Queue: 2 jobs
Job 1
Amino acid sequence: MRFGSKWLGWIWRCISIARFSVLVNEVLAGFFPSTKGLRQGDPLSPYLFVMGMEILSALIRRVVEGGFLSGCRIRGRRRPDFNISHLFFANDTVIFCEAKKENLTHLSWTLFWFEAASGLRINLAKSETIPVGEVEEVDVMAMELGCRVGSLPSYLGLPLGAPNKALSVWDGVEERVRRKLALWKHQYISKGRRITLIKSTMASMPIYQMSLFRMPKVVARRLEKLQRDFLWGGGNLERKAHLVNWEVVCANKEKGGLGLRKLVLLNKALFGKWIWRFACYKENLWKQVISAKYGQEGLGWKTNKANGGVWSRDLEGDFEGNILEHYGGGSLGPEFWLTLEDGSIFWKDGRNGQFGVKEAYSLLVNPNDTTFLKKCIWVDRVPTKVAFFAWEGTCGKVLTLDRLQKIGWQLPNRCFLCGCEEETSIEEDEGEDSGAISNAPTTTQDPANITLVGQTKGAQTMEITNDGGCSIPQDPSVVVD
């Protein structure tokens, strides 16, 4: 690579002066020099490895150009074929070739030349020949190369090469969620903790797969059913009443919900990130593959129409109104200076004009004019389980005795505190002069006026006072007006 003799001397000195010693009966047996290789953890190792792989990459390119190795050809629409012959990542190498014995013979010769030129030896015992699709006599071809036959692995739980539209691809996700639920089966988990577990665990398990494949609606319904049953029934998934509609639960807390996410809309928002990356990234290999297969429109901001397959432009309409294309010179602020030759693309609702999944999801959610006093319920110092109960009360969904009687339970209705009046839901106790807040969620007709103040060392209680004469003693931690 035409390095100077002085630089080569430095590198050789760093490698050749290493000395090693071994312990014999817990006594050092003297030092001996290294004859090959580098010391464990030597900082030169990654740099020398990259330089060595440049030699292998050049050899493979020359073999492909000579027609001795085919590589993986991407056939596009009236465009030149795009050929991928090899990929390098750290110390892993993937080489693509046609399933023919001649290709593997030429590849074997190429690896031999690389060993002779670099002094490195490829460990074929740790290498695999992986067939894609139905390949005949794959054992014979693997023997020609001197390695074993393998199969496509899985990455982050996703089997590589699986049909993206098959429902079976998502079976592993549902199975992992059910296994996680089995661990919580015999634990008492408050509803506040259930919200946290749904957001941190159950909803995050399919994220990677959702960012690559379109989730079928039937799969989304099954996974959301597991979330609903866990929220209202606990780890046993008991059949308990779902007190609040799932659409309301999935609304933002500012809109009177719990801030959970609809999986179908989240799937679209994650796909939108790839549309954004396609517009912004110019030289990425995956963009070159997509562009070669489908072609480009709009000076490279988007692809031609792509029906079917993993890549699709069906989602562009969801975000098109929020993408700004900017060409030519000028400035959109000190951090967005563009030359006459360059263009750029900006996201209206994102930070610094950048795409964000959170903002994209908010655009896809059906807008509503509901406002909710989030700061009165979801207070940092108040336990989530207490805030959840207050949220249920605000929605008018607390299972009081009168509500249980309405759904068929045969119970005597008497207040447990005074024993005189009937126990009724909060919104029925609030009369016309109760002063209920007017901008509460529209899911209830007469929502209660609830304000959580904070938490003390004592137990959290609520105060409910109405004209019926029933009063719960006040505690400074929680106040219900």
Job 2
Amino acid sequence: MIYRRIFKTTYVVPLKNVFDTFIDISKPSLHKDAHEVSNDDKPMEKAQVDSSAIGKVSSGSKKTSSKAYNILSSPEIVAFSPSELEVMEVGSSNSNLVKNMDATKTSNMISFNMNNDASTRQHTDLQDRHSFKENTSVDVGTSMISEAYQASSIMAKKPRIVIIGAGMAGITAANKLYNSINSNNLFELCIVEGGSRIGGRINTSEFGGDRIEMGATWIHGIGGSPIYKISQQINSLESQKPWECMDGFSTQPKTVAEGGFELNPTIVDPINTLFDNLMDYAQGKLIESAEKVDFYNLATRAFKSCCTTRNGVSDQLSVSSFLRQGLNAYWDSMKDDQEELKGYGTWSRKLIEEAIFAMHENTQRTYTSAGDLLTLDFSAESEYQMFPDEEITIAKGYMSVIEHLASVLPPGLIQLGRKVTNIEWQPEVEQQSIVMENGHGSSFRPVKIHFRDGSTMLADHVIVTVSLGVLKAGIHQDSGMLFNPPLPTFKTEAISRLGFGVVNKLFLQLSDRKGDEDKFPFLQMAFHRPDSELRNTKIPWWMRRTASVSPIYKKSNVLLSWFAGEEALELETMSDEEIVEGVSTTISSFLSQQPHKKLESNSHELCSNGMTSEVKFTKVLKSKWGNDPLFLGSYSYVKVGSSGEDLDSLAEPLPKTTSTGSDSCESNGGSVPPPPLQILFAGEATHRTHYSTTHGAYFSGLREANRLLQHYHHYVGIN
């Protein structure tokens, strides 16, 4: 069945015009508008719907709440505007569509739900008042093909804004635009999403009876975070269902060296403090104070020692180079004050300290998504900002924030299963290409979006919120160019230089342990070097660069481990059996059956923690962001060779304008200045100081919505 609604914005028709523009698609046959089509109006070429692109919200994803977003899934094709010969989409209804719209909004729209007898009754009056001429019936199968129909000439052209991507940035932009202009009836607005769900890299799920996050997990600082504020407003910070990291970091980590040697805090804490202070220095947060003077001086020496010059020009410094110089400076400062360790087998103090330091580097890789910290730019770290106060997870799940932002959008505004394959835009416009109507170029829309199912859509403005990974693939010929013509050089160079890494989460459910649920530790693992002859060769290489395995909260049977870079990609290709074998082997080598020994300041105990070394898992769940064609990675970072300026360049809309506001494209011959703001860019990778975060994506969505509102401010007086 076909599901269609018409409102005041997207697919929105003023009530006085609704009878002139509505096309009856409630029957399996096609219809023409009662208005005669002139001989000049040729029917458009039929578009074939790719059934693989038809998406439904997966059963594995979190179900929507009573305020759920309103979407069109299983897209069907219907002509919308024959004067533009474009293909628009109307999707079938599904059980997730919520009909309890706000009464005020409902009074401003007419709903056309052609799914059942009730919807037929809804439309009886409209169909009686508007005659339809039936066209030849066709076999539509899973899709419906429609020719172009003549729309009413009364319908004045409104700017059409299409948002590509229904993640945090896209939903936020739509929320802002819709709430700002609902009373003005100014725009046509829609979101096209290539996947079968909204949320993008936010994906709340359930595993082992607990609520978990497959993607974005943390509110990075509650002081001033808009995500925290929204979560408070919608009561998402409390839940009856247990959730990931619900107790924060209440459990003290147990750091164990390879071979089952639990490390005394007197060994671990100084390296923890060293690493934290070095990262604070890199991020511009370590100030020269009385209590920090030693670390500040040490970090300063490390910075100076690794800033070599060639021909008077400084090399671009990586975070890894700085950190390692900091560790060397620490060893130099402590070489006369530390005694050698006893009872750690083949481990020396220096090897253990290096292993602890590497453990923190591996954690930092998951924070930044840089597969190797040698690729993470040092200078850009000081531009990165976090909100103050603690970092927390969201009890009802990150999806509750997305669903709240989407809940105000009318049904049909979000279209699922609409994979964009190409975006045509107009850096230059020929005078004769502009269709004049009543003295205005109101029929000309400069952007044409092509979809995988063969359909197209015209737009005045397109907000592109796809990941940096998709943009990287989209600028290479062998991947299929996403933009036509290609993006300008300043944009493609910024996309190429910036980093975009892969971070995956691995969840494992422990078998029932008969009341010992609280006995599995927050296990931090200090490994030998991958090339060390002392290493346990049974431990797989992809486990050696993860930092920890721990319950997602105290007493949970669900364990979590984070992976970045090559091992994250390797994880995506492995079977559950291979993963269980590798993790079990690794954990068993850290949890020994031998009894505890008395713990002295420079000695150890073999870590059993009240458990046997045999660990059994019943189920595995992993994220796969690297190979998902809709993302091709997790989040962005400033790579060595790039800078924060590249983030700004990525955020700049096209066509590029000069400082005076005129377009930088030269206008000569038959060309005229191209329409402004054809392609806008949003997403976490477009925010200079909050990249890689959900609040960065949120801010970017607001930025681009406000850019368009400001653009039209002079015309309609939007506040």
